[in-house]
Amino acid sequence: EVQLVESGGGLVQPGGSLRLSCAASGFTFSSYAMHWVRQAPGKGLEYVSGISTNGGNTYYANSVKGRITISRDNSKNTLYLQMGSLRAEDMAVYYCARGTDMVHGRFDYWGQGTLVTVSS
Amino acid sequence: QSVLTQPPSASGTPGQRVTISCSGSSSNIGSNTVNWYQQLPGTAPKLLIYSNNQRPSGVPDRFSGSKSGTSASLAISGLQSEDEADYYCATWDDSLSGWVFGGGTKLTVL
To answer: Does the pLDDT value for residue B88 go beyond 80?
Structure first.
């Protein structure tokens, strides 16, 4: 059974940093692109970032470019999102999702999400 | 303002057929396939339709998708109370070089 479990969310002050993790199991992690999608309270889904199978290609939404770094450790079956210079508008539930492809395809499995709260 | 435009709400009675539209442009829907996601209240999104009209294993055939030009649609027939959820369309945008989502449609079963 495919499982994606996010962790690392919490309360952080504006300008602060946070690292999110997504532990994957039930599939060959290194064979799939991985993505982060977020959802602000009461709002819709927003694509954040994606990474190719070997980490060689990454994508960032304009809203987070320069402040967020996506990475993966295929030996640990884990996806990461290093977030810095956090703003109020970054407050959201962050979901990791398995992608059948980096550019096309679909997000076929999602984690349960981890909440990031940005507040002083 | 989302790149893909969906109606904010839709509704129907049990047994009815409802459709949800998703409008885009030549750089996204016009040149790439569309996926649909269902988000039940308080849960994570779930893949509902992929590649315009394909259903993942386990998704009832009451759900169907279509695409024409720069627009796509999700149809739900034989509406059931458990279909009450938010529905999102998504596709790759060649101009933005990234994935884009619609703003979401809240489906209410009356």
So the answer is: yes
The one-letter code for the residue type at B31 is: S
- Going from the C-alpha of B47 to that of each of A7, A56, A76, B50, B58, the distances in angstroms are 22, 26, 26, 7, 11
Find chain A residues with C-beta within 8 A of B90's C-beta.
45, 47, 107
Q: What's the one-letter identity of residue A65?
A: K
**Residues of chain A positioned with their CB less than 8 A from the CB of B104:** 44-45
Segment A62-75, tens digit of pLDDT:
999 999 999 999 99
Q: How far apart are CA B61 and CA B86, in angstroms?
A: 18
pLDDT digits (tens, 9 = 90+) for B29-62: 999 999 999 999 999 999 999 999 999 999 999 9
pLDDT at A104: 81
Tokens matching residue B54: 């394909």
Give the other-Cβ count within 10 Å of A78's Cβ. Answer: 18
Q: Which residues contact B54 (CB under 8 A, 6 or more apart)?
A: B65
